[in-house]
């Protein structure tokens, strides 16, 4: 604990204060010295230049040039060294025995390179590191890092890990291979004169295996006078075949060739040199013993990296990558180096400019130089991890954050300084407040200067996020508060959103500027201004319905402009047999919206132009205000409160209940209620009529008061887009604006448009402040604390100052829209169950937007967080973007069986408070349908609220059975094997390749033994009387006769079902193939069971192995490899189908014995049921394709349990509770986890920050955060749900408008009216076809003449009542009468499909 604290103080606190410099005792002196001198140089250079030189351009040039050259040099050297390590070009010295010995630097004599080419009497050549130590080179002497393992190169470090060296050489022919002596057999000979033996009789040769990257060590056993060699793999030898040994790979070749020679010697031809080698080894050992005292002072041998400078010139670098990474951060490419050098120059330029301007005096000059040094030093060696870093390990973005913030702040200070030098700064009055611009700019400059001084503290506390996060936040807030945007999902999304908003603004500004140049009067509105208003409404409507992420839109454009490229990509997806339907679904939705916007925007533009051309808005202000307030109050307050689980937190049950509220397990979609229709109608009326009329009225009235053109355009677009997207809180803002500026501060009012615009921003901040205050009060309330000891009573009063600081922090974070992160917090998954959350995400993508618009989740806004809780699924939903007809969200799935703390919070969510009768300390009871006083009080002190108790969503219910229980008895295992074989026979006969397999000569030849009736399969590890129904006890095995006695009837029944007859008598090839496959299947089961099928555990293990598709084929069964479909399309499906048949045996015992019933069951299951392992891609494809039923076998190993479960999935409607969480609670807890885990390095799995807190759901919120902060089972990508995919909502408003849809509707209306007129005109209908075609009734001999035509009633859709309304009218004509009905009509009658009044019909 103490060492961790010291490490945190050193690497976290002190490094954050200095920008990354700290003393690391684990590093060598060279690195620590370099770090210190670098930081001192960056600190003293600007300070000395500022004090020594006058504030001139010359001093600025000297400083900037020095810093730029300094950084260019360091970055270039660092980059070249990393490139050198990546290439792995190692230089082998001319003599590898160059090792320093003794304290005085005595050298051993170097070996002449020419000796390496001279064969010795023993006929071997060696090139090794010579040393008097017995262990010339040990594995412990070398260090490797991850990058070096990817590029295997031998590294060597000195004993103190601090030495380095550079040797410059000129070798024009350095790559020429040396001349090597080869024996008669073509093997390199290694002279024993250069073999070095230590006291232990070992020979060490260092090399790297090309396969494994490990060291190759040759060992000689002196006591036995023979050499024990390194084991060389066949791939090693084959990889080296044909290669020419040179200096760089010589040691490796020696290792492999020594292994070959030793192997040859050990095979019966021992070399004559063995005894001589042993003698020499003894002499070498004696020599090594004489120098034993000096060997402890020798450094490790030197292995250099080659750094080429010029052609023919290179430098030997004695260094390694780990030491270099500890010295300087690595920049991956040239662009990152350029950015780092540019930022270093910019920091120097802006910092010295401010020093020259005299912005800092006395000690503050030194403090500012410290800030400059910390910003520049972070570009060389950054703080890792930083307090604002969301990930463990090295974060490349943090490297640039501090310097980027410094440039932003100093740039703003410099601009303000230039503005303050002007003498003509104006004085203006805004809302009755006189603003002296000079004083305001001075105040702002002083704030920025103070924040710049506090850089070390602010970065230590993590108050500034990463620079990319800051840019996303800044662009998002500008787009939301000034242009009416929705949200940004990334940096590209933020840039795209701000770009399209500026494009629309520039277009609107031109129209508005031209309109204000025309003459105005109260009785006439210029046409150009009316055009501006129409264009404003159309563009605002279009932008409000577009997603901020352009990915789907770009995909749609790409599919239209480059269809060939898209088709080739789709073919690649089809080849993998896994095609996700979601992208195509999203593109269709976007296409549908674009076509609808084309029509709606045109109509809206024309209507707006016509209305604003009149003076209707000049006298309707009061009426519009009253209408907006009334509609908003009913829509966004009254109806949501009446639909809550506890209306106003006083009533025990909802007043407006859904149809499913009292149902235990609803089976159909939620029924569309009357109040939901009312809610949608009021919402659309408010969005598309009331607020556009109010804003257009304000534009028309304010333009007469000479309102600023830019301000009018910005305010109009922002208010219109916000109203179209989500008007949930617009009515409150509108009412407060009217009351405040009409009654309280009427003199301070500017114009209504400006007042409404400003108040929309203020109310957004006030809403955040309210959520933060609610979170704080709930979190620190004394009665929420578990008073488990006397310490709580002692510590609680001391929380008051902390609470006061939290209050101050709350106001600051509200202003900048940041989470309560630093002080409050105590600080796509491989799980098989994640597929359920993935399917839940797809279901929400289909229905979430429509359900929100129907009010089923209550009021909502961007950033809101919800939890969907059911029996086993607990999903965290984060609403990221709310648009006009779209919602972007992210789902995070929690564990099925969570921790103890999670279970306690789930219980708090699911438990009811209706039965609580307590009031304070007594239990007087409560009024009917009203909560007790204690229950109402406790509900008000929660950071969450239950909004809906019966929210239906399509998902999968899980049923599981213990496989061990179902197979405990031998008879049940025998039954499973019987179904296994019958399923194999079924799939074999049903295969389209059956005739091919029967007639295949290779298969026929391999199965000759199976055609003999006396052939017996006697494998006691495979066949047993306990599990094989055709086992013959007297023969101790299985024969063809016994097989036919059991399975011939089933074979013949399946064969008779084929359209083409096939021979299936006892001697037929079909029976032979079935018999062979049955043996193969059982033998595979025995092999997978480790030949212990009688054991239940082994049997389950083997069956699960086959279920996964893992088959171990014996040698005698290799004939099956003739066609792999025999395994993949016959045996594997047979294994899986047998599991389902075995389950059915318990429900219908007798029926499964009949071949007809069994055949029908397998045929039905083959179509309707998906049976595969969960790791099979077909499983995920089936779930995402919304298959009704799935079955799998799962091996569960958890908490010491080892079980096999049969999992069955049934698609049905799941019931969830919808819990809305305070979004500031989520942001604060997540940010606190980030600082505690990443920056403070808390590794305690039972830390207090993840303990259960029922009032805030702390454990569920923290566990749902992204890794490494949380541990969610599944985190979905950002998913967008569109309004048009919700069938119930579509039935209300009729779907998106399009030109084809309008044309069809008009034609249907005109045709219906024309037909009714014709049919009532008295014309003889036998001669006239009212449907517009030839009369088929009069010419059809089967037509009915005396009675009305009967129609077949179509089966109603069980999913929803709304779908049942999608019917068509069928107008039937016969002798002047007509009958309108719904259903299906016999094709022989001539009919016409028309639309009934109030109905929507889609022809198919």
From TrEMBL:
<feature type="transmembrane region" description="Helical">
    <location>
        <begin position="678"/>
        <end position="699"/>
    </location>
</feature>
<dbReference type="InterPro" id="IPR007735">
    <property type="entry name" value="Pecanex_C"/>
</dbReference>
<feature type="transmembrane region" description="Helical">
    <location>
        <begin position="495"/>
        <end position="516"/>
    </location>
</feature>
<feature type="transmembrane region" description="Helical">
    <location>
        <begin position="59"/>
        <end position="77"/>
    </location>
</feature>
<feature type="transmembrane region" description="Helical">
    <location>
        <begin position="362"/>
        <end position="379"/>
    </location>
</feature>
<feature type="transmembrane region" description="Helical">
    <location>
        <begin position="593"/>
        <end position="612"/>
    </location>
</feature>
<feature type="transmembrane region" description="Helical">
    <location>
        <begin position="425"/>
        <end position="444"/>
    </location>
</feature>
<feature type="transmembrane region" description="Helical">
    <location>
        <begin position="776"/>
        <end position="794"/>
    </location>
</feature>
<feature type="transmembrane region" description="Helical">
    <location>
        <begin position="334"/>
        <end position="355"/>
    </location>
</feature>
<feature type="transmembrane region" description="Helical">
    <location>
        <begin position="719"/>
        <end position="740"/>
    </location>
</feature>
<dbReference type="GO" id="GO:0016020">
    <property type="term" value="C:membrane"/>
</dbReference>
<feature type="domain" description="Pecanex C-terminal">
    <location>
        <begin position="1063"/>
        <end position="1288"/>
    </location>
</feature>
<dbReference type="InterPro" id="IPR039797">
    <property type="entry name" value="Pecanex"/>
</dbReference>
<keyword id="KW-1133">Transmembrane helix</keyword>
<feature type="compositionally biased region" description="Polar residues">
    <location>
        <begin position="154"/>
        <end position="165"/>
    </location>
</feature>
<keyword id="KW-0812">Transmembrane</keyword>
<protein>
    <recommendedName>
        <fullName>Pecanex-like protein</fullName>
    </recommendedName>
</protein>
<feature type="compositionally biased region" description="Basic and acidic residues">
    <location>
        <begin position="277"/>
        <end position="289"/>
    </location>
</feature>
<feature type="region of interest" description="Disordered">
    <location>
        <begin position="147"/>
        <end position="181"/>
    </location>
</feature>
<feature type="transmembrane region" description="Helical">
    <location>
        <begin position="450"/>
        <end position="475"/>
    </location>
</feature>
<feature type="transmembrane region" description="Helical">
    <location>
        <begin position="36"/>
        <end position="53"/>
    </location>
</feature>
<dbReference type="Pfam" id="PF05041">
    <property type="entry name" value="Pecanex_C"/>
</dbReference>
<feature type="transmembrane region" description="Helical">
    <location>
        <begin position="618"/>
        <end position="639"/>
    </location>
</feature>
<feature type="transmembrane region" description="Helical">
    <location>
        <begin position="528"/>
        <end position="544"/>
    </location>
</feature>
<comment type="similarity">
    <text>Belongs to the pecanex family.</text>
</comment>
<keyword id="KW-0472">Membrane</keyword>
<feature type="transmembrane region" description="Helical">
    <location>
        <begin position="806"/>
        <end position="825"/>
    </location>
</feature>
<feature type="transmembrane region" description="Helical">
    <location>
        <begin position="399"/>
        <end position="416"/>
    </location>
</feature>
<feature type="region of interest" description="Disordered">
    <location>
        <begin position="262"/>
        <end position="297"/>
    </location>
</feature>
